[in-house]
C-alpha cells in the first residue's frame, strides 16, 4: 500500500474553495470546512480529499469511477429531498479527487448524546420517524444506505431534522475497492456496531438492513449506550431494556423487531416501521395476534404429524372366556 501522506493543501482549492479549518483527518480522507468564493454568499461547504491509497493507477481509477457513480446517484436524490445534502466533485491537475458537500450546521446524533445524555422516548420516536421518512425515500429509489450510524446523521440546527452526511459512504466505497483488489492490511476505522451481520460479514444489503441500523440508533439514543455496551455483536444477544427504563413499552417492542437477528424477522419496509411508530399500541396487539395464530398453526401441524406417526387403532372389546 502506498504511503497515505498527501501534499499540503493550498488555501484555495480548484481556484474556488477557500479553506477555513480542518474538520477531520481519517485513514482514507481528510475533510475541511471551506467557503465557495464564486458565490456572493460565500456558501460554506465540506471538501473531502481522497488520500492516495495505492500506487496502482488501475485501482485508483476504479476507486474514482465508483465514487463518481455514488456521487451521480446522490446528486439526483439530494436535489429533491431536503434531508439529503447536495454533493459534487472535482479532480485537480494531479488527478487528485475531491468531494464537495453541503455544510449542514448542527450536531451529529453522537454529539447530541455526548452533550445531552440519553434522550426521552418521545424525542427518540420523533427523530426515528424523521429518519424513516428519509430512508423510505431512498428505498423507493432502490438505494440501501450502507453507513447508517449516529456519527453520519446531523440534526440540522435550524429545524432539528436529521440529515445524512457522506463520510461513512466514502469509507465503505474505499473499503470495498481495497478488499476486492486484495490490498491488505486495510487502515480501517473501528466498526461502530450499528450495522447488521449480513452487511458487515457477508456484504449483503437489504431494506431491512437499514431498519436494523435504525433500531440500534433508537436504542443508543434512549439509553446513551452503544451496541458494544449492550450486546454481544457476534450472537446479537443482549438485554438493553433495563438501560432504557421502559421494559414494557410498546416502543421497546418496535425496536426489538427492528433489530431481529435475521432480516426476514424484522420490519421489511420503512413504511411498516413508520406505521408501527404511529400506532405503537396497535402494533403490539397485531403482534400478539400474529403470535397466537402462529402458535395455533404450529400446534395443528404437530398434531397432524403425531397422528400420521401413530394412527388411531380400533377400540378393543373386552372378552371373558
Fraction of residues in β-strands: 5-15%
CATH topology of the largest domain: Transferase(Phosphotransferase), domain 1
The CATH class of the largest domain, by name, is Mainly Alpha
In the sheet with the most strands, the strands line up as 1-2-3-4-6-5
Helix-residue proportion: 40-55%
Number of strands: 9
The coarse overall form would be globular
CATH superfamily of the largest domain: Transferase(Phosphotransferase) domain 1
Descriptive notes:
By secondary structure, this protein is α+β, with helices and mostly antiparallel strands. It folds into two domains: 10-103, Phosphorylase Kinase, domain 1 (2-Layer Sandwich); 106-293, Transferase(Phosphotransferase) domain 1 (Transferase(Phosphotransferase), domain 1, Orthogonal Bundle). It has eleven helices and nine strands. It has helices at residues 57-78, 109-116, 121-140, 167-180, 197-200, 207-223, 227-230, 241-244, 250-258, 270-278, 280-309; strands at 12-13, 17-25, 29-36, 44-50, 87-91, 97-102, 106-108, 153-156, 162-164. Strands 1-2-3-4-6-5 form a six-stranded antiparallel beta sheet, covered by helices on one side. Strands 7-8-9 form a three-stranded antiparallel beta sheet. Strand 8 (153-156) and strand 9 form a beta hairpin. Helix 3 runs antiparallel to helix 6 (207-223). The longest helix has 30 residues, at 280-309. It is globular, with a radius of gyration of 25 Å. Mean pLDDT is 82; it is low at 1-5 and 313-321.
